[in-house]
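Researcher: Quick sanity check before group meeting.
Model: Go ahead. Protein one:
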Amino acid sequence: MADIRFSMPFSIGRVIFNSLTFLVFLGIVLLLYFRLGHRGQNWMLIVASYVFYGWWDYRFLGLLLFTTFFDYFCALWIEGQPNPAKRRFLLASSMTVNLTVLCVFKYFNFFAESLQHSFALLGITLSFPMLHVVLPVGISFYTFLSMSYTIDVYRGDLQATHNPTDFMLYVAFFPHLVAGPIVRASILLPQCQQPRKIIPEQVANGLWLILMGYVKKVVVADRLAQVVNWGFSRGSPPFADANSWLVIYAFAFQIYSDFSGYTDIARGISKLMGFELVVNFRAPYLVANPADFWRNWHISLSTWLRDYLYIPLGGNRKGRMRTYCNLMVTMLLGGLWHGAGAAYVLWGLYHGSLLACQRAWHDFVGPRLPSAPRDRAIVTMTKNALLVLIFFHLTCLGWLLFRAGSLPAGVDQSRFVLNYLATMIVPPDGINPIARAIVVLGAVSLFFQWKFDAMNRFSQWRVSWQVVAVLAALCAIAALGVFEGAQFIYFQF
């Protein structure tokens, strides 16, 4: 198999939210921001965002610029084109370019290897060239962001902007650039176009979101990462019994705290400058069914998939079987969005199956059940708690598939997952000591989810509670924080 290499062994470093370099960078940005007028702020933020992205890998600044301006002009041409066929051609051009960029950098090798294996099963030997390219950080996020803009203009849901700097800022705004949330143009673009007014309540909420995000990342996620990395760093499960669940629990709380922590910091920084990003997480581990999970987990991606894929495929408007197929296709592509690998595809299919099963239950079983008398509050609470517990474990099984996508090279993913599943049903002789740390950190994670609404209304708390919360967060960071600048999980997507 031929190798085609485009990578270069050079990088000028990385600026991530949980690094001292980023805090210095943010301080400079805010200092300049408050000294400039609206247009000056926009230009400064564009420069700062490209510096932020270029600090990761300057070679892909051109790719970001190309995607931005291609969609900017496509949207203008779509809006000014009365011919429906030409409008469709322009939209198709935008989608083709964005998806081609994404496929070349992220999926080419995966599809090439999959085709080779498929034909090998038929006794046919094929050889495809393999691309050795560095995956541009955040490419899945900013291509979806930019592509949704042209789709909205084509649908007539949004007017194309005629100011390229506004659109550049919308795409490259550094708080959301590399790991979301995937903010629609209808929400963020007007904030780029109009002068921003910053109020004290917004600043207070922003500072608290930043602080809460750091607690989630450096205290909860990075501490749990030590358990998770140990549990997945070998070719076999670390335990021979149900203690294996502990590692999966640790990953479940790690990935929530890591990704929602990033989102909190991104939203908090944006609030300091008068921007409002969308909420990306609520309480995904306190829900009782798969539909509610996706209403609470990575909300900006799940709504993107719903509005730009599931509904255009027909949604639930074309019969039951078509609905189940649409759910499976949407979640399969959602899994593939996360990574080019069989584990991510299976994770997407797994969640698609859960959604299809829930839909089938409501279609076939629910209408036939007899009407039950109204339960007492304590019975209802018990039933709901049991359903939440069951679905949390179903979610954890999915996380086992997801995490298997990042196993060390040379480890058979399918064998590893099957071995893990086999240990989970073996009764343990005792509970491993790491359970105490996982329970404590998991409880912190669940507390943030349980009090989600309150956490977003910090400015409305009593002053005494604000002081206690801030001191508790600072003490937790100082005493338990991991200050090694660990990368956020979703940067790899």
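Researcher: Fine. The other one?
Model: Protein two, sequence then structure:
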Amino acid sequence: MGFYDLSKTERQKLVNEIEGNILQAILDLSNITENNDIIIPESIWNYSSDNDTYIRKNAYLAIGRIYAAHNELEKIMLRLLDVMLENRNEKVRQTSVYALGEIGKKDADIVFKPFEKALVDKNHSVRNAMIGALKQMGRKNPVPTFEFAKKHLHDDDPKIRREITHGIELRGREHPEEVLPLLKELLNEKVKTVRDMIIHVIGQISYKKGCLEIVVENLNSWTNRDLVIEASEEIVKVHTRYKFATRTPEEANEYIKKHLTLFIDGK
């Protein structure tokens, strides 16, 4: 039976059980010295490798809450997450990355070293977790998160450039002015998958109130005409897909035609 097959009351009971069991497992580990190897406790391994996405989600959320509430357990928890990140099971590694993302909302600097491992993980679900973790951290703790992003924005591996670009998106939905300078650094990106992600993110940060104005004003300083045109087309598509967008597609298109320099000048 899956998490959402349970009643609301049963789900809350399970959430409490998961957190209680994880806390107890971490407390049991807390007596281990720095010289001793850590073995992932059975309960934590079971939750973090569960086939149900929502069981795994509640496990990493519980780890985040425990970390925030128990300063005395921080070191052992970080050691445990490092061990989980080396586990053969990709779901366990994925859970570790998401848990680190929860921790990074408060203490960003300590999660960046394991994040660099996750960026090059062989499994796409772990790398996707890296994107999701960066998104959540960027929203809550943008300054150190964006410093990390800048460090890897020009990585030789286009997969990493793409992951980093996607990872800064969520903050941009509320504060596009913070994300656009990073995107501009990839103005002349040649790899299609990365270029497509840049265009995707520009669309995603354009549809909320006040955002289109900031995006268009910024795009006026971009020198890659083709990329700007593709981005403007994506903006209109996003306004078409998202019925909750501030403007209608027609209004968004009209604003772009009126305020984007390359259309005004007819270049």
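Researcher: One line on it for the slide.
Model: The radius of gyration is 21 Å.
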